[in-house]
Design brief:
By secondary structure, the protein is an alpha+beta fold. Helices cover 22% and strands 40% of the residues. Strand 6 and strand 7 form a beta hairpin.
Length: 142
């Protein structure tokens, strides 16, 4: 398995490229630490489900949000979505937003950095979705 000790990013926003080097204090395994890069950095996944209606979906998702300590910001039954705020942990991010979109056959989970200008998430958004899915999967048959 490949190990990384530093990461160099080259981003061209203007005429001059912006070069950023991130050095890690300990060795990281690439398979365990996949970062999202974008404006803002985000991670999205789609999963099938067997929930009968939005209310059943809402109950499962809100239970997971509570277990994770995430704050439910908005629930919109017409759009079939629930949005939660994920508190900042450590100094890598300022927190994230999690949007869960419901349809009759699947749901879409998205975690994105709150700060629009944060373009690297250090794998935090993927970990958010994995945490949410682990709790949701215990409640429903996916």
């Amino acid at each position: 398995m490949a190990e990384i000790k530093s990461l160099v990013l080259c981003i061209r926003v203007t005429q001059q490229p912006l070069i950023i080097k991130i050095t890690f204090n300990s060795t990281l395994l690439i398979s365990d630490y996949v970062m999202a890069i974008g404006f803002p950095a985000k991670y999205t996944i789609q999963k099938e489900h067997a929930l009968k209606n939005f209310q059943a979906f809402s109950d499962v998702v809100n239970e997971a949000f509570t277990a994770l300590g995430w704050k439910n910001l908005k629930e919109d039954q017409e759009r079939g979505q629930i949005i939660a705020q994920i508190p900042a942990t450590g100094s890598l991010t300022l927190g994230e937003l999690c949007k869960v979109q419901y349809t009759s056959t699947h749901f879409i989970l998205e975690s994105r950095c709150i700060l629009f200008t944060q373009f690297v998430d250090f794998g935090k958004n993927k970990r958010n979705i994995k945490s949410l899915l682990s709790i949701v999967n215990q409640s429903i048959d996916v």
